[in-house]
Amino acid sequence: MVYPGRLSRGCSRCKQRKLKCDETKPSCTRCLKYGKPCPGYEKNLVIRQEGTKFQVQDPSSGTVAVLPKPGRSHRGSSSSGSSSGSSSGSGSYSQPILDPNDFISTSLDVIPSWDSEALGYFMHQYVLPEANDCSGYLHFLPKTYLESPESSCIRVAVKASAYLSLYRYSKTKEHEIQAHTWHHHAIRGLLEQLRSGHEATSEETVVTMILLSIFDDIDGRGGHQKINPHLNGLIHILQRSNQSLINAPFFSWVRQQLIIKSFTADYHIVDPSWVTPSANPNPHLDNFRVVAVRVNQFMTSGRQLLAKLKQVNDPANKEPLMSPAELKAQLLAVIQEAKSIQHEIDEWISTIPRSDKWGTMCKDGKPSVYIFSSRYLGCYWINVFTTVIILQGSVIACYDILLTMTRSSVDLNLIMDKSKSGSEAKTMLTHIHKSIPFSMGNIDQEGTRIFRPESRSAYGCLLVWPLAVLARCRLSGDVEVRDARAALEVISSTMGVDLAHWVLNEWRSPLYPFIQ
Fold it and tell me: Collapsing DSSP states into helix, strand and coil, what is residue 48?
């Protein structure tokens, strides 16, 4: 079954201007003449349904599941268009999901299966394996999928997310219908598990909630009422469960989402006991989780203090909980705690080897972009920079309150300290902006532009919230806001993570007006 798109007759810019393009690579003649970067020659959708199925067998358990053949692109193959020629096209998912030795060919199946097509595409787009500089993203999913029975909620939720991710690429209505049908079945199965006492805290329930969270991020509609509605359910299950869930492979994804959402939505208290050593062989990068939890707890206490402030300033409250002097003392204590956390972050960064940090590419003698050893490491550091911005934004909010309380007398020390926090936040915003080209896959490690970057949706999920902070922070410059919004549009349209569109237009930050 073939769904051919319109054949390419030139680069995107020449098509838009309705001019004839000579299709010279890596840049056409017209783009060179006008001094504009050539966007390349993107091919439209070509999805071919193969008749041959392949079984994946887990050597340890002997479980078998039908998956697409590894090393074969179902979206058409094309060159990257970069001058180095090292980047794969965005339309290929030729990476094997597991070890290639685990793939066993079987007999020809006359009836084509979109299940295999969707599953292969989803696994390639959203699974990042663990490495020395990468703690992975949904790295546990292939093995968990293989070990789960055919009737489990995990398989149903995987099908829902897989069909939706394929629909976001193919725009085929049948895929969207299949996605929401499987999503409905997954929700029903999850509710049945939650009603049963012994299965409510099982690994199957947690992994199903993770997959439904991914579904909402892809769909973008789940966040219109509340950001990640399954997060509270995960917190409740973890509070009731034993230590086995905390030590499970999937818990690293849960912990990461708890920390990110605590900075960008409601402030959830992350239990320090949930921060356990992981299997990541790089302890320097792994230790940041402890610092992030400290920032999370600081944000929670700061929110409680701001709630008390509202009661103090409420004219209807005849008996305030504390006097202005007591409130001022507490605000100063909160600021001092933030300074201690910032010092701890600076000390932690100073101990990290240079190879695990960022390098600088210069243009005209000035630093222009940051280069990392991998795209995942770039996404990791962007989240670190965002954590510091959130911390300093909270400190600036405390300084604003203090300056309002001391309006009658100008306190120069408070003004200078607030300015330092603003400078620190601006520095982090600049770091994020310079990290965007490499983390989005637009340039390689040599600084050479890749005309057709590999669009892995997992990287988009890691970058959504930091880019939203950059796009909406009141300290961001016009160029930073423009580039952050453009990157979010790429994540939404090209990578298929529609959550990026929602955070760009409808998200309201708890740090408003610092993050507008």
Answer: strand
